[in-house]
Amino acid sequence: MSAIPPPSADQDYKATLLPLLMSNNVLSFGTYVLKSGRESPYFFTSSLLHTAPLLRATSAAYASVLSSEPFVTTANGITTPNFDIIFGPAYKGIPISAAVTNELAVRDSLSGSDKGVWDNVSYSFNRKEAKAHGEGGNIVGAPLKGKRVVIVDDVITAGTALREAVGIIENEGGIVAGVVVLLDREERVSDAEPKSAVGVAQRDLGGKIPIRSVIGLHDLIEKLGDKIGEGEVQRLKDYRARYGAE
Ligand SMILES: O=P(O)(O)OC[C@H]1O[C@H](OP(=O)(O)OP(=O)(O)O)[C@H](O)[C@@H]1O
Ligand SMILES: O=C(O)c1cc(=O)[nH]c(=O)[nH]1
């Protein structure tokens, strides 16, 4: 475990986040089998983001994206979120949704510009198995009906988790208003679909919904040469040549 710096400023969150993720093995290099069945030379293990400093550092990155246009509109010095709910797909999206909802409000109050702009933003997530007793259902947190919902997740590969999340939100009567992931693996969806999952989602959601990632596979290839060595970078390039999106 390495020392963890405090959440970084907006401008450099990407530069500080990559080494932090690597030194805590959240981002690791080896041979891993993905949900899609592909064999990958790297893996992002967001379940290791279980300490407060790591959670804050990553939440700060999501919050930087979510507090910028087009996720907000700023007019006459007043910022207004263009969404009502931060939705984290089960399981690994769950802590992200709660941490980011908190982070947005906390950093606003720390910066002295607390105008309560985030007070009406809630989090919500799904259960993987519907609950048949008590309050029932499969949504925990804010009800989605009629609300503008931003999806937050750790990783996007083939987009299966994103498609499921969109289905859940629409089924509950919510309106998908955007997507933010920490890592876009920038892979083709399938042999038959050369677009990336983000590209397909952009197309399927009508092209007007903001979909953003903090880090992409290209960042690993461009920025990690001196940390992981040329051999590992070459494995990433080979993987991209085989599975990369068009
Ligand atoms: O774009 P995709 O091909 O769907 O792959 C990425 C998704 O897969 C993983 O979650 P998983 O579905 O394994 O569920 P979990 O959060 O319960 O671990 C990961 O956390 C992403 O949500
Ligand atoms: O595609 C996946 O299954 C996947 C990739 C990755 O880097 N991390 C993860 O949790 N899942």
TrEMBL record:
One Gene Ontology term of the molecular function aspect: orotate phosphoribosyltransferase activity
EC annotation from Swiss-Prot or TrEMBL: 2.4.2.10
GO cellular component terms given for this protein: cytoplasm
Listed pathway(s): Pyrimidine metabolism; UMP biosynthesis via de novo pathway; UMP from orotate: step 1/2
Occurrences of domain Phosphoribosyltransferase (ranges): 82-190
Record's catalysed reaction(s): orotidine 5'-phosphate + diphosphate = orotate + 5-phospho-alpha-D-ribose 1-diphosphate
BP terms from Gene Ontology: 'de novo' pyrimidine nucleobase biosynthetic process; pyrimidine nucleotide biosynthetic process; pyrimidine ribonucleoside biosynthetic process
Statement: the UniProt record of this protein carries the keyword Glycosyltransferase: yes
InterPro entries the record matches: OPRT, Or_phspho_trans_dom, PRTase-like, PRTase_dom
Keyword terms, alphabetized: Glycosyltransferase, Pyrimidine biosynthesis, Transferase
One Pfam short name: Pribosyltran
Function (record text): Catalyzes the transfer of a ribosyl phosphate group from 5-phosphoribose 1-diphosphate to orotate, leading to the formation of orotidine monophosphate (OMP).
Family: Belongs to the purine/pyrimidine phosphoribosyltransferase family. PyrE subfamily.
Subunit structure: Homodimer.
Name this protein carries in UniProt: Orotate phosphoribosyltransferase
Organism: Penicillium alfredii
